[in-house]
Amino acid sequence: MTLAPGVDAPTWPEEFAERYRAEGYWRGETFGGVLRERAAGHPDRIALIDPAPERRTWTYRELDERADRLAAGFAARGISRGDRVVVQLPNVGEFIEVVFGLFRIGALPVYALPAHRESEIGHFCAFTEAVAYVIPDRHAGFDHRDLASRVKKQTPGLEHVFVAGDPGEHTPLSEVYADPVALPAGPAPHELAFLQLSGGTTGVSKLIPRTHDDYLYSLWGSNEICGVDADTRFLVALPAAHNFPMSSPGWLGVLYAGGTVVLCPKPDPATAFPLVESERITMSGLVPPLALLWTDAAARTRHDLSSLELILVGGAKYSEEAARRLEPALGCRLMQVFGMAEGLVNYTRLDDDEATIVGTQGRPISVADEIRVVDDADRDVPDGEPGHLLTRGPYTIRGYWRAPEHNTRAFTEDGFYRTGDIVRRTPTGHLVVVGRAKDQINRGGEKVAPEEIENIILAHPSVHDVSVVAVPDEYLGERSLAYVVLRAGAGPLKPVAVKRFVRERGVAAYKVPDLVEFVDTFPQTGVGKVSKKQLRSTAEQS
Ligand code: OOB
User: Fold this and answer.
1) Ligand 1 within 6 A of 341 CB?
2) For residue 123, what is the DSSP state?
3) What is the pTM assigned to this prediction?
4) Which fold, 441-541?
5) C-alpha dihedral sign at 430, 436, 442, 447
6) How many angstroms does the Cα of residue 14 sit away from the middle of ligand 1?
């Protein structure tokens, strides 16, 4: 698809947009507007709690006012509608204030994860031509200010670095808040709200353009399914920037419903369980490895978890055996979630039978979600048979941001997103994820694009070739293994040296290969390409 100059991504054709509006999926709201309405409707209700290091709370009125003040400060610094701002904050109250401040003036948060390092952040800032980058001072033993200084030097358009905490040589976020005297007009509902990161299958993460209209539908659609309302007390255990804890139903869904969001600094039971007890948490979302930890720890805990009503588990395949143990251990309901930052989200339903809840990954939010399960030639396969999952609908993007060439492969001509997942559909329309066609490693919900890591390892002077594949892992589901072919005559290399080389290139720690093995050659496919399939099965057997 060719786009008009200045248009960064394909969007829904007008006939679809009209239909989604007419059928009531797109309500014509914006994030800034929703917060303003909630603050007017129930100003004194608690919207947000950040429990550490000392407990801070925000009523809806306070959150709304703080967002306004930040919006005014950002605007005074020249940040305006459509500008990109890379936000890399852990689960702290400032994260929520910053994104609502940006929403209000129509600037677009680009959601980086706290684990990202120079390689990823440098790319996000350069590729999105970001004007600002928001960071904590230090987090998990890492100084984000040094990283910001280096990235700022390399990225001429990056004008501002705002720091939540001790600013070092940068601007303290606390100085940005200003009197919201003349706020510029906010964005329209059909405009972009933010750029989310894709798990990625290529050398660099693609950016996912989400609009106010489409994302808000995924929120209230999720709220209806999960039973989120003003009494919900939701614990954000996973990184708040990830799509799952943000929107399924997530902290944004809970704020939409007028409930209370509690930020959890770390997701382990030792941190989370005391908060479940003290904050009377009713709902949370976990990736499968964490769900396992919580399930096991619940048997031994002295904390009262009786307020829990629902735990959502998703991001990676949850084994049936583990799923069966969750409800009795935690004394609450389980819902499986199979979603993607590109859009489509599936949930099991509270009234599904047990076999469906533990044995499927749910069905789409909406009757307007179009699902196709197809063979390699894009022909539909019958229910019950595995095939590629394609989807299109009112909250699934029609194209990545500034990626025209990739879009021709990732979307069909009629706008279906090729998820890269292999699923089978049951007669009730539930999906079971049975595999993956995309070249990606799903490390307990954290996605790694092998190509990105291969490109880094290839830069090592002793390396002739490399192939990174997934190996099964009992706890994470999958781990990464780098098969390395050394150059003829190169001296010996240790696995740790390869791992160190990757880490020193400044990538998120979860992308560093878990295992490194040296081999003489790779198995080839018929056309002389490296056969990853063969490598994966070798890895499984070893
Ligand atoms: C979520 O979003 P992403 O964008 O990090 O990853 C999407 C991919 C899916 O295409 C699929 O490969 C995998 O993650 N996935 C699952 C799964 N949930 C996601 N695979 C098997 N079983 C599941 N339950 O991961 C995400 C976004 C919103 C809600 C939940 C998860």
Assistant:
1) yes
2) H
3) 0.97
4) GMP Synthetase; Chain A, domain 3 (3.30.300)
5) negative
6) 29
